[in-house]
């Protein structure tokens, strides 16, 4: 869910989906999910497949899974009025549909009314009725059996065609948990209640799998059920800039798992705009490219070889940062503090951060200042009080000031707070390749700091039953003579696959020695031999880099000058 996602309205037929999937793998561009918009359906009708475009959904989904790609289809809340079709018949028989004031079932045109064959009106589930939520949640069983990895709930404001308001009449009736009311009271929570029905349904059908749901509409508390994206945007620099303030605002409102359509949904981005948007999107909690019907291709390779390389590198950065991102998102799930943070949230005593809309924090340690305007050769970045390190060069900057950062098309200005411990990993092509890869701990000297690394299997609910691990990392205050790092033994029963632990930090000159454990000096390795050896240390462009087997026991590393 935290990897890179590729979407379009729409990828069809199945040969097109396969083409996109194989391009990601052949071009070595990391990705985890391909999304299916309404053209996979029979007449845009939810819970159906177009048998001509997608003759073998389970086969397609299994083939993508073998490539390390999961599949997420769209499911909208407007089943077609179609007697003889089980979802309609069961919804009608169970009294699960929204009604008119006279008691008849409310019908209106949405996507099924635009179908090429047999168009027709839709009916609408009454998600304010517990039995209707249970009925709707059960309808996902065939999709899960086919192998889908999540569900995309769209059009759930609810959207209705051919009305002045774009939604249901305010007079239609809802059950409202047994306290009948009209749409005036239910409208704002309709999307939330749909995602609740979806979440609870997926959990009943797959009791030990974490439901993954994306929604376009929600309400306070909806973060319990779904990720959220703010809907159709436009391929325009102003919409790129606006995405930052929009997502920060959603985070301040309790919605942490959020992201905007990278590249813009409507119209066509320039190559520069798409690359800049993708670079900013590295730090959207939910990272998905999406584009509209009739627009040119908008995959990372669609803008020529120069931009393909830049786009690949941006997505690779996302995958390198996944251990840090996972920890920040876990923190959000526990505390409600968003992952993508407005500067004022992290620095409430600094008036310079108030109203700041073009830079943000990701977690407490990464300051991100993406390039948001066309053709820039530099951009201004505000660094709050304290010391900061340039993420790319390791250069140290004193905070409490504004600096001007030169930028090229490859630049993503990122700064790390002094004292931070940043957990990263090598580039992988998808999250399924993560087990067994080295865990990299990057230390940025500063005040004494205790950091935490949390891990679990990333798939099941075992973490709720102790199936996780958490380790504290204590970094001594920066000292010109020595630097020590203490990694405590883990809590919890989960253990990652065997791997190496790599610790690196900026260092002036060369260490006299590097000690691990009980005063055991580690051998120095040449950069060429470092990769193949189980342990040792080396110097790489001003950083001392230490390698040691991750025993999941206590580890003490000391660097001496």
Would you write up a description of this structure?
The chain has 561 residues and is of the alpha+beta class. It has 13 helices and 28 strands. The strands form seven sheets. It has a six-stranded antiparallel β-sheet with strand order 10-11-12-17-14-15. The protein has a six-stranded antiparallel β-sheet with strand order 20-21-22-28-24-25. Helix 1 links the parallel strand 1 (4-6) and strand 2. Helix 4 (130-138) packs across helix 7 and helix 9 packs parallel to helix 10. The longest helix is centred in the middle third of the chain and has 16 residues, at 190-205. The protein is elongated and about 85 Å long. The protein starts with a strand and ends with a strand.
Distance from N terminus to C terminus (CA atoms, Å) equals 43 Å
Q: How is the biggest beta sheet arranged?
A: 6 strands, antiparallel
| Shape descriptor | elongated
**Number of DSSP E strands:** 28
Q: Which structural category fits the helices and strands?
A: alpha+beta
Strand content: 15-25%
Explain the layout of strands and helices.
Elements: E1 4-6, H1 14-26, E2 33-36, H2 57-66, E3 70-73, H3 86-93, H4 130-138, H5 141-146, E4 151-153, E5 173-174, E6 181-182, H6 183-186, H7 190-205, E7 213-215, E8 227-228, H8 237-252, H9 271-281, E9 287-289, H10 305-320, H11 322-335, E10 340-341, H12 343-346, E11 360-362, E12 366-368, E13 378-383, E14 387-390, E15 396-398, E16 401-406, E17 414-417, E18 421-424, E19 439-443, E20 449-456, E21 468-475, E22 482-487, E23 500-506, E24 513-516, E25 520-521, H13 527-530, E26 536-540, E27 543-549, E28 555-560
Parallel strand pairs: 1-2, 1-9, 2-3, 4-7, 7-8, 19-23
Antiparallel strand pairs: 5-6, 10-11, 11-12, 12-17, 13-16, 14-15, 14-17, 18-19, 20-21, 21-22, 22-28, 23-27, 24-25, 24-28, 26-27
């Amino acid at each position: 869910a935290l990897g890179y996602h590729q979407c379009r309205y729409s990828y069809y037929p199945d040969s097109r989906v396969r083409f996109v999937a194989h391009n990601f793998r052949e071009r070595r561009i990391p990705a985890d999910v391909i999304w299916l918009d309404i053209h996979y359906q029979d007449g845009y009708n939810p819970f159906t497949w177009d048998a001509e475009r997608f003759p073998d959904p389970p086969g397609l989904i299994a083939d993508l899974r073998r490539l390390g790609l999961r599949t997420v289809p769209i499911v909208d809340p407007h089943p077609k009025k179609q007697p003889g079709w089980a979802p309609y018949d069961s919804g009608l028989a169970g009294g699960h549909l929204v009604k008119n004031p006279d008691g008849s079932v409310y019908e209106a045109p949405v996507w099924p009314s635009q179908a090429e064959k047999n168009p027709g009106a839709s009916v609408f589930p009454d998600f304010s009725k517990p039995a209707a939520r249970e009925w709707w949640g059960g309808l996902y069983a065939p999709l899960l059996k086919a192998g889908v990895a999540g569900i995309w709930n769209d059009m759930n404001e609810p959207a209705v065609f051919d009305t002045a308001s774009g939604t249901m009449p305010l007079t239609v009736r809802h059950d409202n948990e047994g306290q009948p009311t009209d749409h005036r009271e239910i409208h704002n929570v309709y999307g939330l209640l749909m995602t609740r029905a979806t979440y609870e349904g997926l959990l009943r059908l797959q009791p030990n799998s974490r439901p993954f749901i994306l929604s376009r509409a929600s309400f306070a508390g909806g973060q319990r059920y779904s990720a959220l994206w703010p809907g159709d945007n436009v391929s325009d620099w102003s919409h790129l800039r606006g995405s930052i303030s929009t997502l920060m605002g959603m985070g301040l409102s309790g919605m942490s798992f959020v992201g905007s359509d990278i590249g813009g949904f409507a119209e066509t981005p320039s190559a520069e705009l798409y690359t800049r948007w993708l670079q900013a999107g590295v730090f959207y909690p939910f990272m998905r490219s999406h584009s509209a019907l009739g627009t040119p291709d908008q995959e990372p390779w669609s803008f020529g070889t120069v931009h393909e390389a830049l786009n690949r590198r941006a997505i690779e950065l996302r995958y390198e940062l996944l251990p840090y991102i996972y920890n920040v998102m876990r923190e959000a799930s526990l505390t409600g503090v968003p992952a993508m943070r407005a500067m004022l949230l992290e620095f409430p005593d600094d008036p310079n951060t108030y109203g700041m809309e073009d830079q943000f924090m990701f977690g407490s340690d990464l300051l991100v200042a993406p390039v948001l305007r066309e053709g820039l050769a530099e951009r201004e970045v505000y660094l709050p009080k304290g010391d900061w390190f340039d993420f790319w060069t390791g250069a140290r900057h004193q905070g409490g000031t504004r600096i001007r950062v030169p930028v090229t098309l490859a630049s993503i200005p990122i700064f790390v707070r002094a004292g931070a411990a940043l957990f990263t990993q090598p580039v992988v092509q998808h999250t399924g390749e993560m087990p067994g890869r080295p865990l990299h701990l990057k230390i940025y000297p500063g005040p004494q700091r205790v950091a935490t690394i949390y891990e679990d299997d990333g798939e099941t609910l075992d973490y709720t039953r102790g199936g996780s691990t958490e380790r504290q990392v204590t970094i001594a205050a920066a000292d010109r003579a020595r630097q020590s790092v203490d990694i405590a033994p883990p809590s919890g029963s989960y253990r990652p696959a065997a791997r190496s632990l790599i610790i690196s930090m900026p260092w002036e000159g060369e260490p006299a020695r590097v000690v691990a454990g009980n005063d055991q000096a580690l051998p120095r390795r040449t950069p060429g031999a470092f990769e193949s050896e189980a342990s040792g240390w080396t110097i790489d462009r001003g950083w001392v880099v230490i390698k040691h087997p991750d025993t999941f026991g206590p580890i003490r590393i000391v660097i001496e000058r």
